[in-house]
Amino acid sequence: MNTVGILVIGNEILDGVILDTNTQWLIQQLKPLNYTVAETITVRDNTTEIAQAINRMKNDTIELVITTGGLGPTHDDMTLRGVAEAFNLPMKLNDHAYEIVERQYKLYYERGIVDTPEITDARRKMAVFPEGAKPLDNRAGGAPGVLLEQNGFAVVSLPGVPSELKWIFENQLTPILRKRAHGHYYEKIIHLNLRDESILAPLIDKAMETDSEVYIKSMVKPYGEAGIRLWISCHGENIEEIQTRVEKIAELLTELTRDQVYTS
Asked: Please, what's the b/e burial string for 217-248 (b: 16 or more CB within 10 A of its CB; e: otherwise)?
C-alpha cells in the first residue's frame, strides 16, 4: 500500500483564522492514485515542530509526506527550514527555483500586480531549499513547490494558498506520484433508507465475513433522520478484481436490506 502523511503548517490554522480545506482536497486526489493517508498532523510555524512531525511520520510506515503552507517570503514561512532540520541538510539557493521565482515576478510586474520585478531578499528566500531538493513549477503563484527524496522516502512541500497547491499538484506532482505508486483503488457509496445504525451493524459484520479485505464504513445522519451512507472500498493489484469485490459486497448489502437501498 502507498502510504502518505499530510503535515499542515500554520498558526492561522490552529488559531481558527483560516479553515483547512487543502487536506480534504488532497485526500480526494490521492485516493484514485491508490495512496492512503495514514495520518495528518497540524503544527505551528515553528522549525523544530515541523522537523519533529516529519521525523515522526518518517519513522512509521509512511513513504511520502506532503506539507502544506509556509513557503512564502515572510519571516514565519519556515517549512523548508523544518524539512532541512529533519534531514540534517544545509539550506542552499536552488538555481532552477530562482528562475521560477524570477519568471513569476516578471509576469506579475508586466500584469501590474506588483510594483517591481526585482528579486528582493524576501523573494529570493522562496528559492532557498534544503540541499538536494528539486523545485516543482508554480504558475499560479510566486513560491515553487519542493520535492526532496531520501532513501526511498519523499517530502513534497506545497504552498498553503489553495489555487497554488492545486496547480502544482495537478500539473507537476501527479505524474511523479503515478510513477511511484503501485496497485489500484476502487470505492462505491450506497445509500440506505435506515435511521438506526445499530440495525445495520450486524449486516456489515456479515458482509465483511465474506471478504475481509473490503472496507465498509457507515456514515450516518443524526438519529431520527432517514438515510445512512455506506462507503465500500478496496485496494489491490488488479483493478477489475477489486471492482468486482466491491460490487459483490454492495449487492450483498442490498440483498440483506431488501428494497431499502438505492444507489447513486
From this structure: eeebeeeeeeebebebbbbbeeeeebbebbee
